[in-house]
């Protein structure tokens, strides 16, 4: 078998804010922008990885989701315990400096972790945890 | 917007505020941070913040902050080149007594015993492996205190 990762999903509760973060701050390209009944699905990804996509989606859009479940998801997103992603970059410190110069919420400055990795962490506008590690560390 | 929607929007804004308090502890745990300072940062009283935080995350902000500090202290003690006092201050604790008590409650042995034992246990193991094996396990440790007899 020859299977690669094509698309993964992260929830967003404000499409314009999500686009501002992933496209304008992280430098991802916008590959698709689909609207339906007031909701938006944004497909983004790094220019150097044309085959890997993240869909920033409205959580709870599946009609099988109950109101109670939507409420729980919205609360977990707000308190920052719902979703996360790990990214990597060849120059962590310069990347972090650029992030800090924008108005992102910093969770952790670049730190050497005891398990041998160097990484930093920020929140995206929806409250998702975005960890960025030094490539090759 | 119905009053129910308005109440839910307010609740989400409040939770996002608590998230910022929690993230600030992750970011600034090594500073002399306390619950009063955290509460001032979000215009709440310390008591109110503690109750709201505990309702949202299942533990008080004080407990979260101290656990974060102890986790980092474990990593620093394993390096072996820092004294317990150095480590205590490096992770933002200002009282060696409070640090040692909380460390013992969470880890099951005193910081000095931990330092000695981690060196003995990992002697002869390549450092790249010992980093993996001894990395602090965040969630299972949180909210739970280790048995006093020590780790099994």
TrEMBL record, chain A:
UniProt cross-references to SUPFAM superfamilies, sorted A to Z: Glyoxalase/Bleomycin resistance protein/Dihydroxybiphenyl dioxygenase (SSF54593)
Stored InterPro entries: Glyas_Bleomycin-R_OHBP_Dase (IPR029068), Glyas_Fos-R_dOase_dom (IPR004360), VOC_core (IPR037523)
The protein's name in its UniProt record: Putative glyoxalase superfamily protein PhnB
Organism (species): Nocardioides soli
Domain called VOC: residue spans: 4-135
Pfam annotation, one family: Glyoxalase
Domain of life: Bacteria
Segments crossing the lipid bilayer: none
From TrEMBL, chain B:
Pfam families for this protein: HTH_18
Domain HTH araC/xylS-type: 19-117
Keywords in alphabetical order: DNA-binding, Transcription, Transcription regulation
A GO molecular-function annotation: DNA-binding transcription factor activity
PROSITE patterns: HTH_ARAC_FAMILY_2 (PS01124)
Keyword DNA-binding annotated: yes
Highest taxon above the source species: Bacteria
Annotated spans, Disordered: 118-152
Matching InterPro entries: AraC_XylS_family_regulators (IPR050204), Homeodomain-like_sf (IPR009057), HTH_AraC (IPR018060)
Keyword check for Transcription: yes
SMART domains: HTH_ARAC
Protein name, UniProt field: Transcriptional regulator GlxA family with amidase domain
Originating organism: Nocardioides soli
């Amino acid at each position: 078998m020859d299977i690669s990762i094509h698309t993964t999903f992260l929830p967003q509760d404000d499409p314009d804010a999500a686009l501002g973060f992933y496209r304008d701050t992280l430098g991802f390209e916008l590959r698709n922008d689909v609207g339906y009944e007031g909701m938006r699905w944004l497909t983004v990804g790094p220019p150097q990885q044309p085959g890997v996509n993240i869909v920033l989606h409205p959580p709870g859009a599946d009609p099988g989701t109950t109101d109670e479940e939507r409420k729980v998801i919205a609360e977990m997103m707000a308190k920052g315990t719902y979703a996360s992603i790990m990214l990597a970059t060849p120059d962590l410190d310069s990347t972090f400096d650029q992030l800090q110069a924008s108005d992102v919420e910093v969770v952790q400055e670049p730190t050497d972790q005891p398990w041998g990795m160097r990484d930093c962490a920020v929140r995206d506008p929806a409250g998702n945890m975005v960890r960025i590690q030094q490539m090759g560390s | 917007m119905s009053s129910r929607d308005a109440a839910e929007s307010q609740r989400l804004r409040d939770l996002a505020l608590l998230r910022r308090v929690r993230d600030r502890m992750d970011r600034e745990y090594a500073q002399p941070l306390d619950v009063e300072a955290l509460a001032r940062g979000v215009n709440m009283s310390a008591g109110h913040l503690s109750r709201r935080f505990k309702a949202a995350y299942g533990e008080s902000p004080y407990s979260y902050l101290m656990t974060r500090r102890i986790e980092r202290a474990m990593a620093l003690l394993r390096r072996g080149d820092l004294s317990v006092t150095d480590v205590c201050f490096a992770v933002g604790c200002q009282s060696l007594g409070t640090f040692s008590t909380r460390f013992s409650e969470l880890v099951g042995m005193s910081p000095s015993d931990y330092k000695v034992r981690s060196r003995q246990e990992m002697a002869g193991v390549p450092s790249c492996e010992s980093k993996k094996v001894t990395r602090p396990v965040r969630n299972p440790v949180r909210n739970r205190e280790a048995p006093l007899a020590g780790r099994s």
